[in-house]
């Protein structure tokens, strides 16, 4: 991620179980996602999240809330159970997604995951290439969200 792309980017935090922790800069309605992921990027993103969750489970084997979350999600989701059985462990660092269900139309963004040292908090920063149609659409969403908050 280039620092010049960070300014005015949607930002949200995630804890070790990838639950959203909205920032002041990101409206609550937008803190979890920019919309649905396209199929091309959804597979990679899902695999990365399960691998990251498995890594957190390894770091905190006696955390009852995390154990309960993993058990509940594995029972409810055959896809998560399948990925969990693959035993892949990794830290989710970056991905690309195309948000397909925004009011501005499809937007492709790079999502960089920044880890906060000494904690399990992750900051997810989504950026579009400056000057691109995606950047213009992201700006349009930002304006719409700010109006909604006013």
UniProtKB/TrEMBL annotation:
Disordered as annotated region, ranges: 1-41
Coiled-coil residues: none
InterPro entries for the chain: MLTR_LBD
Residue ranges annotated for the MmyB-like transcription regulator ligand binding domain, each copy included: 41-141
Domain of life: Bacteria
Pfam families according to UniProt: MLTR_LBD (PF17765)
Protein name: MmyB-like transcription regulator ligand binding domain-containing protein
The organism of origin for this protein: Promicromonospora citrea
């Amino acid at each position: 991620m280039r620092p010049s792309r960070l300014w005015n980017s949607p930002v949200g935090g995630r804890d070790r179980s990838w639950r959203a922790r909205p920032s002041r800069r990101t409206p609550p309605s937008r803190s979890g996602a920019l919309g649905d992921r396209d199929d091309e990027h959804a597979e990679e993103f899902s695999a990365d999240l399960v691998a990251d969750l498995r890594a957190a489970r390894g770091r905190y084997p006696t955390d009852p809330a995390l154990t309960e979350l993993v058990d509940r999600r594995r029972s409810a989701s055959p896809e998560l159970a399948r990925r969990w059985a693959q035993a892949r462990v990794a830290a989710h660092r970056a991905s690309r997604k195309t948000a397909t269900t925004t009011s501005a139309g499809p937007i492709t963004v790079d999502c960089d995951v920044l880890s906060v040292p000494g904690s399990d908090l992750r900051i997810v920063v989504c950026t579009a290439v400056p000057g691109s149609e995606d950047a213009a659409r992201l700006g349009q969403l930002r304006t719409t969200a700010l109006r909604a908050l006013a």
